[in-house]
Amino acid sequence: MTSIKLSKATWSRITSSKRLYRSSQAVSTVDQKIYIFGGELLPREPVDNRVDIVSLDAQDHGAQTLTAPAKAPSPRVGSPSTTIGSGIFLFSGRGGLEMKPIEENGAVWRYSTAENTWDSIEPADPSAPFPDGRSYHCITSDGVDQLFLHSGCPEQNRLNDLWVFDVNKRAWAELPSAPGPARGGSSIAFHGGKLYRMNGFDGKTEQGGALDIYDIKTSSWSTVTYKPDGVEGPEARSVATLLAISVQSKTFLITMFGERDPSALGHAGAGKMLSDVWDFDIEGRTWQKVEIGDDGPVARGWFDADAVRDEDAKDAVVARIMMRIEGSGLKTKASWEHQTANYGSCLDH
């Protein structure tokens, strides 16, 4: 059997809209639509709480801005989202006048893409333990009834915890923490009963050289190590992405972009940004750099991304990519589609 490799990719622009200029936002895909929520254009100033939609199956990929319902999450940044069925879920984030972590006592927000409505899923037992409010954490789901929440920035320091939320039972349970150090801006993905975690920023340095794997059945962590030299594996980074992509029944992990050498200004500035794309062969446990050409988006970080299955049943990556341009606090303004032989698409505004 011929081995499958994701060695090349091309980029094509999807759409551009001033409304979508931002970073630190949430992005999820349901069917052929991309849903965008939250984020900031100016440092520490969250945009409003309306949902924006980009339709991939429409001839015109322009964005549609929906009216926010009376009940909706407050404006926030650093709150990524994930999906189960047609619902989009997010937890906490940073907002308010003091831009502190939003504490909602363990509640999870669920957005109905069919009805443009939000509901707050509060824990059934308010006295049971729940994760602290935080920002720049990572979240994923098993696609059925469980959400997984990891790491991030509470009011002080950083976290390395791992929690699972049963949507049907409305209950949180704390799982074994990931290998240290504690960090924010990490990336996580779910595939085949396992969680894959990499990268992040521990307050001093960007993390890299390790792909940590949590086996849900055995409640145990293991680690695949590699040289983060840009040759054997991706360089250390934070505020990037990690997605599981299936191609002809074989699954790869895709990571791309991110920040290296952060700015002394923290969230108000930008450090060294990366523009590379890598795939990880889960079976072979090896990284390969993807050739992407010279016409794609510029280097970036501080974005969210998701995967979508196209009309030909081929997986695609849809990344609502906003960045802090290297050396400034500005945001880019284009929208892109990222295509490879059998996987492909990515947004950037």
From TrEMBL:
Domain of life (superkingdom): Eukaryota
UniProt keyword Plastid present: no
Signal peptide limits: none
GO biological process, one term: glucosinolate metabolic process
InterPro entries in the cross-refs: Kelch-typ_b-propeller
UniProt keyword annotation of DNA damage present: no
Pfam families the UniProt entry points to: Kelch_KLHDC2_KLHL20_DRC7 (PF24681)
Keywords in alphabetical order: Iron, Repeat
PANTHER family: KELCH REPEAT PROTEIN (AFU_ORTHOLOGUE AFUA_5G12780)
Record protein name field: Kelch repeat-containing protein
Native source organism of the sequence: Fusarium napiforme
Organism placement in taxonomy: Eukaryota, Fungi, Dikarya, Ascomycota, Pezizomycotina
